């Protein structure tokens, strides 16, 4: 798709361009396999000498159409859809980091990703150092090791709502010869395009705003095609030396800017699977078609609500990067000038039980282990998503026991404010 098209157009037109007489929606190709007339045709596909479909675990036309739309939106050269955001982050890392490797990760990230990196990757022999996004350049530099393969952060962290200084971290990563991977789930490419700030790879939980209506769980890995793997071939033999499982093919030599994406599909998807079902990709595409409109309303509603809560005496604190007084407001203005997202964190005056009573008193806004949905919802990470973390780990991830994560939907904002008011009133009963 033409690179100069705006995001709103890409949300609708990106990825699937029907030819004469073809359906306007990408068809759901609900088939595990594809038929060929000659064994030579099939052999060429297996050798990666021709492109085409042979088995849905590797590639499927519906999945590819939606992946292409996400690649267009992020400005990448290629994207791969995965069965969840967790799978996307796992594949993004594992594609270039094997046993014996080390990764450097912002400690302000989603609890599930924290667990994946701290516990599961460790079992696979990959070591992880968590570091504050506020660390100085010197502190970050000192955390690198010879075996460090990548740096990882979230554009807007879940649940802390911290804004990651992408440009600064990209420069540091590149000075150490490694790529920066950014989880752009909360900002979405509507509000931030990490590649424009130097990030090399972007991941998404498409379960969130991209879908937007809580209809499917999915993920995506997008490559900018910009990282010079060959210049750091000693660090990335997985991409720059022959892959014996592909008859000695070298990804960078055979696929150039598509090396990272091709390896992820041809090797990791082949061996580990984890693609989304085509039906889910179809649902995701329906969500993507309105992403630009929904993000605008999520941001408008969230800003109005953040201002209302900030002015209420019963609220101890509000963390929303779009508020002028927010600690990361300057970063938000730089990276998210049109608004951040619909998620904020709040703390109420009182104790842990005050948070629970408040949430239980809400009538319209519901309690859910989800964010980035058209329906407003709240969650108490200390007793829900992050309950596997110790107090020390909670603190290290910047999560206070009173923190309520509030995902503002796109209902009428006055109805939401009225619900919050009545729940706050009930705290004094
Ligand atoms: N990344 C972020 C920022 C998330 O918020 C989440 C889930 O909440 C994930 C990744 C994992 O995504 P999924 O739930 O689709 O596996």
Any chance you could write out the topology, listing elements then pairs?
Blueprint: H1 7-13, H2 39-46, H3 61-74, E1 78-82, H4 85-94, E2 102-106, H5 111-123, E3 127-131, H6 137-143, E4 148-154, H7 166-175, E5 180-183, H8 188-191, E6 201-205, E7 219-223, H9 237-240, H10 251-255, H11 259-272, H12 278-288, H13 291-310, E8 315-319, H14 329-335, E9 343-348, H15 352-361, E10 366-367, E11 377-379, H16 391-396, E12 404-407, H17 413-425
Parallel strand pairs: 2-3, 2-4, 4-5, 5-6, 10-11
Antiparallel strand pairs: 1-7, 6-7, 8-9, 9-12, 11-12
Helix pairs in contact: 1-3, 3-12
The chain binds pyridoxal-5'-phosphate.
Question: What do you see in this structure?
Answer:
There is one protein chain. The protein has 2 domains: 2-287, Aspartate Aminotransferase, domain 2 (3-Layer(aba) Sandwich); 292-428, Aspartate Aminotransferase, domain 1 (Alpha-Beta Complex). With 429 residues, it is α/β, with parallel strands linked by helices. α7 (166-175) links the parallel β4 and β5 (180-183). The longest helix is centred in the last third of the chain and has 20 residues, at 291-310. The protein has 17 helices and 12 strands. The mean pLDDT is 95. The strands form 2 sheets. Strands 1-7-6-5-4-2-3 form a 7-stranded mixed β-sheet, with helices on both faces. Strands 8-9-12-11-10 form a 5-stranded mixed β-sheet, with helices on one face. Bound molecules: pyridoxal-5'-phosphate. Residues 84-86, 89, 110, 112-113, 154, 158, 183, 185-186, 205, 207, 217, 219 line the site of pyridoxal-5'-phosphate. Pyridoxal-5'-phosphate (PLP) is lined by residues 84-86, 89, 110, 112-113, 154, 158, 183, 185-186, 205, 207, 217, 219.
């Amino acid at each position: 798709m033409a690179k100069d098209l705006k995001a709103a157009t890409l949300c609708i037109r990106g990825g699937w361009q029907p030819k004469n007489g073809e359906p306007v929606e990408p068809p759901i190709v609900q088939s595990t396999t594809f038929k060929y007339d000659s064994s030579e045709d099939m052999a060429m596909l297996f050798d990666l000498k021709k492109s085409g479909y042979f088995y849905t675990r590797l590639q499927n036309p519906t999945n590819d159409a939606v992946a292409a739309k996400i690649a267009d939106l992020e400005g990448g050269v290629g994207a791969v859809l995965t069965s969840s955001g967790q799978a996307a982050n796992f594949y993004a890392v594992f594609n270039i980091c094997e046993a014996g490797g080390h990764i450097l990760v912002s400690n302000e990230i989603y609890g599930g990703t924290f667990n994946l990196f701290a516990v599961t990757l460790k079992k696979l022999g990959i070591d992880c150092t968590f570091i504050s996004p506020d660390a100085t350049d010197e502190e970050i530099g000192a955390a690198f090791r010879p075996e460090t393969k990548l740096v990882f952060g979230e554009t807007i962290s879940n649940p802390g709502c911290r804004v990651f200084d992408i440009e600064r971290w990209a420069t540091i990563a590149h000075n150490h010869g490694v790529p920066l991977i950014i989880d752009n789930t909360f900002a979405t490419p509507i509000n931030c395009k990490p590649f424009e700030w130097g990030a090399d790879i972007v991941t998404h939980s498409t379960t969130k705003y991209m879908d937007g209506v809580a209809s499917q769980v999915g993920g995506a890995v997008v490559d900018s095609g910009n990282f010079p793997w060959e210049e750091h071939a000693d660090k990335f033999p997985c991409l720059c030396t022959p892959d014996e499982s592909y008859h000695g093919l070298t990804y960078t030599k055979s696929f150039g800017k598509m090396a990272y994406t091709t390896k992820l599909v041809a090797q990791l998807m082949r061996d580990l699977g984890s693609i989304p079902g085509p039906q889910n990709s179809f649902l995701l595409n329906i969500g993507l078609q309105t992403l630009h409109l929904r993000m605008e309303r999520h941001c408008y509603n969230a800003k109005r609500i953040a201002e209302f809560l900030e002015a209420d005496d019963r609220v101890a604190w509000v963390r929303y990067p779009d508020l002028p007084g927010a600690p990361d407001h300057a970063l938000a203005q730089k990276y998210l000038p049109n608004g951040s997202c619909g998620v904020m964190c709040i703390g109420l005056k009182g104790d842990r039980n005050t948070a629970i009573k408040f949430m239980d008193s809400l009538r319209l806004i519901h309690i859910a282990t989800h964010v980035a949905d058209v329906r407003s919802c709240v969650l108490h990470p200390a007793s829900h998503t992050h309950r596997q973390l110790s107090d020390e780990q909670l603190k290290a991830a910047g999560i206070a026991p009173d923190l309520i994560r509030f995902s503002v939907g796109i209902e009428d904002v006055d109805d939401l404010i009225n619900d919050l008011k009545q729940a706050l009133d009930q705290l004094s009963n």
